[in-house]
Structure formats: structure tokens, C-alpha cells
Amino acid sequence: MKFYIETYGCQMNIYDSEIICSILLKAGFIKTSTLKKADIILLNTCAIRAKPEQKILNRLMKIRCLKSKLKKTNKQIKIGIVGCLATHYKKQTLEKFNFIDLIVGPDSYKNLPKMIKKLKKEPKKKEIDVRLANQEKYTKIIPSGLINRISALISIIRGCDNMCTFCIVPFSRGREKSRNPNSILKECKILYKKGYKEIILLGQNVDSYFFKPLKFFQLLELIALTVPLMRIRFLTSYPSNISKNLVEVVKKHSNISKHFHIPLQSGSTRILALMRRKYSGEEFLLIIKMIQNIIPDCSISSDIITGFCTETQEDHRETLRIMNRIKFNFSYMFKYSSRQGTYAERKLKDDVPNILKIRRLNEIISLQKAHSFYRLKENIGKIQNVLIEGISKKDDKYYYGRNYKNDIIVFPKTTSKIGSYNRIKIINSTFTTLIGVLTAEI
Ligand code: SAH
Ligand code: F3S
Question: Which of 305, 308, 358 has the most ligand 1 atoms within 8 A of CB, as the residue to mutate?
């Protein structure tokens, strides 16, 4: 049987798709990258905001047409949705979309082979498994292939216990489950042997990792020592979990990227309380100050939501004020969209008109653009170790790669291979990318 998989959403989903591929390949399924050749089409879905959800629904409608077309030629294909929308929708989806044959949540991928085989035997029956687990389920599975030839993802903690009032993740991915450190270290070593140069540790809340007695900063140090020739990145950090110990470990090991992704969400302490975030605007500033005191040129990126329930112009100004104080290297910026079942959807009023959300979002985006440019320009004149990740898409005479802070740099191709390091002098910057040249200086 041939399967086809399409992935939406965050890096955790990209990683999960690799887990799914591993499980199915091991069970004898064959992977195809052609939709029409597949016996089963899987969409690994995202429920975080209305926009990605709509995109997936549109895609599902197209696949539905394909299913009916192929049926006329006597080819039966099955359609499955896996991932966050699976747990978000559950049974209602089956009633609404009767063409979906399979619904599997993020903790049940091990059951996929059995469930798909059952579908084959009993074509009229649907298969559903959206149970959420209390323990990490994929400890022994090594994902099949990874994002590119250089970087590999490793999930270290799944789910989230924070219950921010706007967020669907605690419902779609369940409680926090930290993974056994032995299996993480084993995966790191395998990836190193396979030739990967960089590891990206993933978690909705990576810094709340705890596998008795190991905390995140201890795990990170162990990984840095276990694979000293690999570069290590991690995301996403929850602001109030960032300890001095963690920042010290990041500083101490030259193979850990000097970069934290720390969602601010809002600069207004009133809105932060409504979002049930565990810090105020001022406390967020103190956390950033602590990091910058220890690692002065540390890169800091963020996530920001505009137009959350009851957000006033004053609250919005507070967000701009904090952004101006910090000047994030980059941010992912979103307008608030209500998610069914969350506290905000049930108890608060989504009362900021869409046009105002868009206006505020645009203000935030243009401020961030100025800050990103400001931060990039700080690199000009410096000489940095750049990990070559590939050939620039815009000009094949150029390589692109990243420095120790995760900034992207393009520079004229050198004789070095992709996956190795070059000493690059930064000579210029666009709004998003640094421009450099190879230097003989050490
Ligand atoms: N800690 C997580 C956050 C997951 S969601 C992580 O791994 O990144 C990613 C981002 O989506 C959040 O930080 C938030 O900025 C945004 N987001 C989540 N729910 C949202 C909603 N209902 N509306 C708009 N943006 C949302
Ligand atoms: Fe979501 Fe808040 Fe967790 S944004 S993923 S509930 S930290």
C-alpha cells in the first residue's frame, strides 16, 4: 500500500510527519510523493489559528474531488486527517465530512498501520483514535529523514500544561510529556553519525522539560557535550521558565546557538493576565535584561498576538513600547483568532473589530521590520563562523548559511562543502539577510 503525506503547521508537525513515515515504512507501506498514486492520503494538520485551518479545509475539499474522480475509475483512495485538527474536531468532523476515513491524534500514530489495514478490510468503516497520552509515545522511534541535509529536528517535550486562554495546544496535544533523556541522546548520536550538522530541540514549552532529576538546562548541557561538533538550537522558551542556569549553559558551550525564541504575546500587563501568561510586561523586560547581561549579543525572537479580547489602543501601545525597549531580532506576528473550546472563546469577548486587528498588526509588523534591520546591521564589520546550509535560491553563485545567533547570511560560493563552516566577514545587510565575504582572518 502506498501512502502520501502533507504537513501543515509548526516544526513539531514536520517532526511528527517523519515519525509517521518511520512507523508506516517499518510496517511495509511505501511512500509516494504523487497524490494520485497513493492508496491513503494523510494530512498532518494544524489547529492553532483560523487561517491555517481554513487552508487545510480548502485542501481537503480538493482531495475529496480527487477521491470521487478516482472512484469512477474504480480506484479507492482513503483520506486521513492526523495531528492537531484531529483532536480538535473528533467525531463532529466525521459527521460533517463523511469522505474522511481516518482520524488520528498526535499521540496515536503507532496505531496507524493497524488502522489503515482495517480500512482496507472494511472499506465502509471509519477509524478514529484521538486519545491523548500522559507519557511520550515515540521514545523508540527514530524519524525517517529530516528537514534538510544539515539540520535535524528532535522533539524533547510534547503537549503543554500552561493553558494560555487563547491557545488550543493543551487541548489538541494534551498534557506536557518530557521524553526520556537516554533516547534523546541516542537520537543525537545517530543524527551525528548520519552526517547532520545541527540539531533543533523542539517543544511547545521546551524549557519546562523535566525528566527526573534532569531539568532542561542539564539536558542541554549533556547534549552539547555528547555531540560537540554539532550546533544546537532549541525552541520555544516560555518566558518565566528561563533560568540563569539555562542562560549560563547557552553561554558556556560554543556549539549552542546564542538565540532564544521567547513569545511576548502582548506588552500590556492587563492583557497578559487575561491571556493567563505568568509574567507582566515589566517581568518580561527583566528576563530579557538577565539574558543580555550574561550574553550581551544574544539574539532574541518572539511571537506577538494583536487584537486579543478587550485590547485597547493603550494596551496596543504597551506592546509597541516593549518592542521598542527590546528590539527583537525577529518575530512571528498574528492577529488573534478565537479557537473553539479555549477559555477565551468560552468566557471572553472577541470584541476588537477585524479592521482594527489588521491595522494594529500592520503597525507591529512595520516596527518589527525596523528592529530586525537594526539588529542585522549590528553584525556589519564582524567576522563570524557560518554553517553553510545550501546554495542561495536567488543566485546559484552564492551560498547561504547561519551564524552562531541564527541570522541568515549569503556570500559568494567558496570551495568549502555544504555542511562545513566558513569564516565570513559581514559587509552589508538587507531587511532580512546579511551579506558577507570569505575572509582569511581568524
Ligand atoms: N509555545 C508554543 C506556542 C505555540 S503556538 C510554540 O511552540 O511556539 C505559536 C504561536 O501562535 C503562539 O506563541 C501565539 O503567538 C500564536 N497563537 C496561538 N494561539 C493563537 C490564537 N488563538 N490566535 C492568534 N495567535 C495564536
Ligand atoms: Fe499555547 Fe501557552 Fe502552551 S501559547 S503552547 S498554552 S505556553
Answer: 305
**Cell triple for residue 393?**
535560491
Q: Are residues 364 and 429 in the same domain?
A: no
What pLDDT does 140 receive?
Answer: 77
Nearest CA to ligand 2 atom 7: 162
Q: How are beta strands 214-215 and 210-211 bridged, if at all? A: antiparallel
- For 11-116, strand residue ranges (E) read 30-31, 40-45, 78-83, 102-104
Indicate if 367 and 244 belong to the same structural domain: yes
Encode 87-118: b = buried (16+ Cβ within 10 Å), e = exposed.
bbbeeebbeebeebbbbbbbbbbbbbbebbee
Burial 236-250 (b: 16+ CB within 10 A, else e): bbbbbbbeeebbebb
Q: Mark 387-396 as b/e (b = at least 16 C-beta within 10 Å).
A: bbbeebeeee
Per-10-residue mean pLDDT, the chain, length 442: 95 93 95 93 95 94 90 88 88 77 94 94 87 85 68 94 96 94 95 93 96 97 97 97 98 98 98 98 98 97 98 98 98 97 97 98 98 98 96 95 96 95 97 94 65
- Grid coordinates given for 355: 479592521
What residues does ligand 1 touch, defined as CB less than 6 Å away? 48-49, 166-167, 169, 204-205, 236, 263, 265, 303, 305, 334, 336-337, 339
Alpha helices in 253-298 (DSSP H): 269-274, 281-294
- Domain span at residue 396 reads 383-441
pTM: 0.94
Q: Which neighbouring-strand residues pair with 388?
A: 401
CB-facing half-sphere around the CA of 400: CA atoms within 13 A: 13
In the numeric block, which cell numbers belong to residue 320? Answer: 509597541
The number of domains in the chain is 3
If you measure from the C-alpha of residue 368 to the centroid of ligand 1, how many angstroms do you get, rounded to a whole number? 18
In a domain, 144, yes or no: no
d(CA 226, ligand 2 centre) in Å: 30
229 and 263, same domain (yes or no):
yes
Same-domain check for residues 206 and 321: yes
Q: Distance (Å, rounded) from C-alpha 259 to C-alpha 239? A: 13
